[in-house]
Input
Amino acid sequence: MMKLRLASPRHLVDIARLDGLRYINEKDGHVEIGALTTHYRIESSALLKQKCPLLPMTAQEIGDVQVRNKGTLGGSMVHADPAADWPAAAVALGAEVKAVSTSGERWIPASEFFLDLMVTSLAPGEIVTAVRFPVLPAHSGDAYAKHAHPASGFAVVGVAARVTLDEKGHVESARVGVTGIAQAAYRAAEVENAITGKAPTAKNLQRAASHAADGIEANGDLYASAEFRVHLATVYAERALAEAAQRAAGE
Output
């Protein structure tokens, strides 16, 4: 932000040595991750691969090796870049962000945390110390599908999905988060509604994915126009749903 001349803080505080903010814990059906936990630690966590596989899947798609070893979950969430990967996973899973200040602490739903281009609902004086995600339910599967920008590695479009199947193999519930399209990551509710209760056939998944950008004013730039981003959203939503459904079925 400073390099782009978008921020000119009077003081900087280095929090890199706060080791108490580096952890991955499971408790009461959630995994809680400290804000200074690196992308690589999330990518390589055996606990997360078992309990919340969407997170390692997402982490391995971030930037390059150097970025994954230095960048952190909390830093990415607070930066709120509209093309970042973590917001899609956070919104899809209904994650909660822990904000702490001298006045106390509160948990902010991810759906209320990302407000606009690099804007969050953090109040002045608050910092993020942790993010918690619900663990993977039974008969469920996760997937993250992304079209990366060839230069930056950021998501031109990224789609995170969690699908739960019922005893008949139909979609009991679906959660879909999309990044790279709008000014902030969002839940693709129309996609979720369109596939819930139906068999995850190729035709049904394609029809549901066609709603990935419904009601969204898509971004456009020199690499990808708004129309192309909308097209990519439908393509990658279909891929993410299909992969998640396959994993839910044990395939």
Q: What stands out?
A: The mean pLDDT is 96. The CA atoms of residues 84 and 191 lie 21 Å apart. Residues 226-248 form the longest helix (23 residues).
